[in-house]
Amino acid sequence: MWNNLSDASKKVYQDQYKQEMEKFSVIFSKYNNSLTPEQKQEIKDAMVEAKEAKEKRETRLSAAKRNKELGKPTKPATSYLLYSLSEQPNRSTSLTEHQSQVAKKWAALPDEV
What is the pLDDT of residues 24-65, one digit of tens each? Predict the structure, then answer.
């Protein structure tokens, strides 16, 4: 879409951006100058924590991907999940209602078969 605009049309938006950026720079400078050193440190700490959390998520995701690529077996489905899936073809209600009915049936089953 941007590539299809003429240079004159692009210039209008670029000029508007420059004006807004100048306003922002002034406001941000005032904000930044109003912060105490403690507040600035809190902001830096929060940014570091966010970065570490992101890296941890990415590591966890890459570990799961690596396990899948290596063919690591997955845990089998629980007995409740298997029972719930077996009741799925009989579903004639909404998912929420169906799950509550399955839960009631599950609870009514004897402990030992």
Answer: 999 999 999 999 999 999 999 999 999 999 988 888 878 878
Question: Residue 67 — pLDDT band, cuts 50, 70, 90?
Answer: confident
Round to whole Å and give the CA distance between 87 and 70: 34
Structure letter (DSSP) for residue 72: P
Which residues fall within 8 angstroms of residue 102, CB to CB, at 6 or more apart?
83, 84, 87
- Residues 4, 9, 15, 17: is their CA dihedral positive or negative? negative
Check if the beta carbon of residue 29 is closer than 8 Å to that of residue 21: no
Report domain extents, the chain.
Answer: 2-69, 79-108
- Name the residue among 55, 70, 64, 109 with its Cα closest to residue 86: 109
Name residues whose C-beta falls within 8 Å of residue 91's C-beta, 6 or more positions apart in sequence.
98
